Amino acid sequence: MRAGAGYAATDAMEHAVSLHHPAAASTQTGVPNGKLGMWVFLASEVMFFTGLIGAYVVLRMSHPAWPGSEGHLNVWIGACNTLVLICSSTTIVLALAASERRDLSAVRTWLLLTAALGSVFLVVKGFEYAAKFSHHIVPSTNVFWSCYFALTAFHALHVLGGIVFNLVVLAYTGRPAWWASRGRRLELAGLYWHFVDIVWIFLFPMLYLF
Amino acid sequence: MTSASHASVRLSLTIWAWLAGLVLLGVILSELAILPLPHSGVIAVVAGLSTVKAGLVALYYMHLKGDRRLLVFVALVPFLLIALALSVVFSSAFVRL
């Protein structure tokens, strides 16, 4: 079996692969271009979510009875999902730490766990959506639910993007050539994932607690 | 595992414990109404807790604490723009042309 042989070769290679990150390119800024680009991208994402959150806050302040009699979210489900994302942020930090001590097996385990926790978050969010739809609560129900679905759907899309990013990095971790030339992408995946976590840290209290 | 790596992992787990604790604290303060504050005061406290959590993630998990100052500036630029936008919004609320 070709695929099986591939896995066996990869496993055998695990302890031999040197997870050396590419040396920081001598850029004028002293920061690798990829990392600087990721930070600029995240800054633009901050502006994107600030626009959405700002609209929510303005609408919230202009509606004294908020979210209305039909608006109810389960705080403990939201809190558990927040803890899931926080755990996933920690696991990707542990993946990066494992790459620094050249432990490929641990890198893969932590990356896989990060993607799994992100998936758990999306599944729980899917159940929440399904429960609302079964009660005929849709984005057009009222302004609160419009905001709720818009904010959480955009965030969920970002979580999905982060999971894909993590899985792509995971898929390449067995290739020594990848570590030599693009090993820093693990750090970039981590930066993006933490950003997704930070956005939810603000969305959770806004939507579930206030 | 080297001592530096061990310390790094221990710091990550400590930050995780703080984040999880602050999430639970925010939920308890909001749901159990144990603070002798009006609703707006509770909102301010919970929003402050969220800011602390975001700060912990940015400083320790995203390594802004020990990273190049340029990245800190890049991270702060959107917040400066937000402050500018807010000042425009609130000034237009008070100034009627």
Mean pLDDT of chain B: 87
Report the major sheet of chain A: none
Ends distance of chain B: 66 Å
The major beta sheet of chain B can be summarized as: none
Approximate strand percentage of chain A: under 5%
Number of continuous helical runs of chain B = 3
Number of strands of chain A: 0
Gap between N and C termini of chain A: 56 Å
- The averaged pLDDT of chain A comes out at 86
What's the alpha carbon Rg of chain A, rounded to whole Å? 20 Å
Number of helices of chain A: 7
Class by alpha and beta content of chain B: mainly alpha
Tell me roughly what share of residues is in helical segments of chain B.
over 70%
Name the overall outline of chain A: elongated
Description:
The complex is a heterodimer of chains A (210) and B (97). Chain A is mainly α and 210 residues long. Chain A has helices spanning 2-13, 33-61, 75-100, 104-134, 143-172, 176-182, 185-209. The longest helix of chain A has 31 residues, at 104-134. The model of chain A is unreliable at 1-16 (pLDDT under 50). Chain B is an all-alpha fold and 97 residues long. Chain B is flat. The relative contact order of chain B is 0.07. The chains are: A mainly alpha (210), B mainly alpha (97). At the A-B interface, helix 2, helix 3 and helix 7 of A face helix 1, helix 2 and helix 3 of B.
Task: Tell me the layout of helices and strands.
The complex is a heterodimer of chains A (210) and B (97).
Chain A: H1 2-13, H2 33-61, H3 75-100, H4 104-134, H5 143-172, H6 176-182, H7 185-209
Helix pairs in contact in A: 2-5, 2-7, 3-4, 3-7, 4-5, 5-7
Chain B: H1 3-32, H2 39-61, H3 69-94
Helix pairs in contact in B: 1-2
Note the main attributes of this structure.
heterodimer, A: 210 residues, mainly alpha, disordered N terminus, B: 97 residues, 3 helices, flat
What is shown here, in short?
The complex is a heterodimer of chains A (210) and B (97). Chain A is an all-alpha fold and 210 residues long. Chain A has seven helices and no strands.
